[in-house]
Amino acid sequence: MITLLESRAVNKRFGGLKALTDVSLTIRKGEVYGLIGPNGAGKTTFFNVLTGAYAIDGGEFVMNGAELPAATPHLVVQHGIARTFQNIRLFRELTALENVMAGHHIRSSAGVWGILTQSRAAREEERLMQERALEILDYVGIGRHADTVARNLSYGDQRRLEIARALATEPQLLALDEPAAGMNATETVGLRTLVETIRGDGITVLLIEHDVKLIMGLCDRVAVLDFGKKIAEGTPAEVQRDPDVIRAYLGGHRAH
Questions:
Q1: How many CA atoms lie within 13 A of 120 on its CB side?
Q2: Domain tally for the chain?
Q3: Is the Cβ–Cβ distance between 51 and 76 less than 8 Å?
Q4: Lowest-pLDDT range, 21-35, 47-61, 84-98, 120-134?
Q5: Are strands 58-63 and 81-83 parallel, antiparallel or unpaired?
Q6: In what residue span(s) does the ABC transporter domain sit (predicted)?
Q7: What is the pLDDT of residue 108?
């Protein structure tokens, strides 16, 4: 398979704490790639440096053979990476439709002047954005809530709305940070089906998740972090048998 994203010896420090140490991963086009590890292993830090929220202290990320810009989230999105967050971050007072349209604006070609003057081209682009946003809401299963204010959606539907907004940026890689957190069993099954559909439509998925059953049943390959270092990588079956992974989760050397 073709490589989509590489992290090459990525390091991140917070003062004297090494949050990531020489983390190297290779994610292939069209796969669901899982990133797991005990609490405090560095998973969300990896997401934050990948998506430009934090600057890295060493190493690099390479997307489609080109180095990703560091610490510039909007440029990372333009390079084809979109993410959701462990703690839902929606525009709570906007409707579901408006939230998804906000994601579309990263790809807008009208420019500030066109938007301010409401030129014919800007109005037509806005109409097309709205149509596409409605399609995406249907795609993730919440089209009936297009006019509902985000804060009034159920928890599970807010999770789906975050995914919809990320999809509106037209990503090649969709990075999901704990998407099943707080979901009930039925919602989790629905999430798995949605991720499989997204992958089936050609979008690569990078997934952080504490639900090990979901990870092992959904991912093609899995990497395991512990204390900021990659300790294993492989198929779900290979990772589950790895002695270092078993020690990290069951060795009792850290508080949960």
A1: 0
A2: 2
A3: yes
A4: 120-134
A5: unpaired
A6: 5-252
A7: 66
The type of residue at 202 is: G
pTM strictly above 0.85: yes
Residue 20 is encoded by which pair of tokens? 């990531």
Q: Which pair of structure tokens corresponds to residue 55?
A: 């600057």
Query: How large is the average pLDDT for residues 142-150?
Result: 98
Give the largest Cα separation in the chain, rounded.
64
Same domain as 160, residue 143: yes
Say if residues 107 and 129 touch (Cβ distance below 8 Å): no
Query: Hey, what are 189's tokens?
Result: 């099954």
CA 79 to chain centre: 14
Quick one: 37 and 157 in the same domain? no
User: Which residue, 136, 169, 202, sits at the end of a domain?
Assistant: 169
Instruction: Give the closest residue to 34 by CA, choosing from 184, 181, 214.
Output: 214
Q: Give the helix ranges, DSSP H, for 168-229.
A: 185-200, 212-218
Quote the crossing angle between the two packed helices 96-104 and 120-139, to the nearest 10°: 120
* Confidence label for 124 from pLDDT (cuts 50, 70 and 90): confident
